[in-house]
Amino acid sequence: MVLPTFSFETTAEEVATTFAEEIQGKNVLITGTSQNGIGFETARVIAKHANLVIITGYSEERLRLSEDAIKKEVSSAKIERLVINLSSLAGVRKAANVVNAHSLPLHVLIHNAAAPIAPFKLTVDGLESQFATDHVGPFLFTKLLSPKLLAARTTDYTPRVVFVSSSGHALGTGVDFDVLEHPDPAKYHLSDAYFQAKSANILTAIELSRSSKGAINAYSLHPGVIYTTMVAREESRAALQDLGMLGPEGLPDEARIQWKNIAQGAATTVVAAFDPRLNDTPGAYLNDCVVANELVAAHSSDAANAAKLWTVTEKIIGGEVHSVVQPR
């Protein structure tokens, strides 16, 4: 089978149709699946072919709306809802316990959820909110679910973890290791906090692929610039205007930036989750549905930074939770 060449215009539906055989029989968990977002679109197209799709979010009501919308279109879809608070270590552990109690293995874990770009705020664990929600919570969730992922591994299949990052990581100076454990409001800038979190996503994908020694393949990606409900938030508007993404009225500035619609915005995530051509490039960064490691800033591709971030984050979550390597 000759696989197509994907591009900026490719939609998630097109990718899922192309890889329908790869998706069949798979159990997939996706964080951040509220309607009108790329996580929902990712879940919708995968649900047409997968064995099970676990949709997650912080609101049971929103999850129910998402499930109903998917099942209205795909009546045969097997959907399960999971409430998770990624900004709370206890909340992450609670959600992981639910997944680990499930009888099925987990083939793909997609970290799509993200905190809004917002003023400085500490979580219940004393961490900066954006970094906690976008990096520390997903890191802990991945560690806790690693036995479930490893249970899906066969001689012919390697489970995957996908981190939705952003090209915005390159606008920052990389992860500031001095403030991870002890956030300093005096050093906080809301857009730079976002850039740091997205750098952390890329570094984690690199280190997870390296440390698992082929047991799990992890990828990060830039989904594109998409006008979602998170972008439309009032608290994020000023920062996005400063970046030139939004115009004076708070709407997309299409003269300066090429925007994707939601269908296009979810496409690279589905590629990262299922394209068999990626098997030979674990830890890769994707853009417009193809590997684009050359677009990663030096601070976010550095192996030493990746290893250091892993060590520091393990300390934050309380030490080793699960090894991501399982003897065979």
From TrEMBL:
Superkingdom as given in the UniProt entry: Eukaryota
Keywords: Oxidoreductase
Molecular function via GO: oxidoreductase activity
InterPro entries referenced in this protein's UniProt entry, alphabetically: NAD(P)-bd_dom_sf, SDR_fam
Claim: ATP-binding is one of the keywords in the record: no
Record family assignment: Belongs to the short-chain dehydrogenases/reductases (SDR) family.
Name this polypeptide is given: Short-chain dehydrogenase/reductase family protein
Native source organism of the sequence: Mycena venus
